[in-house]
Write a structure and sequence with these properties.
By secondary structure, the chain is mostly helical. The chain has 3 helices and no strands. The relative contact order is 0.16.
Length: 95
Amino acid sequence: MTPGVGFTPALYPHERKAISPFLAAFTILLVIGVVFGYNVLAPSILWGMIPFFTLTSALPIITAMGFYNLIFIATLVSGFSSQCQPSLFYSSDLA
């Protein structure tokens, strides 16, 4: 299965060649960003919340939904933010 099989009828051959590196970079960087967010960023956020709880004398209670929202948002933001530079590079190349 070739990358971009869903949009091939709508593009000319030279456009398909131009967008293939963009799709590859987009997919690879999204996966790298999500893995980084899940393995590095989310635990760092959780460990960073502990001093906040002690300084404010708050109870360190995190609900399950709050925990999953934190992990989801951290991985999502990390994944999409890792694509900003290549997206701008390839989109300026296509114009």
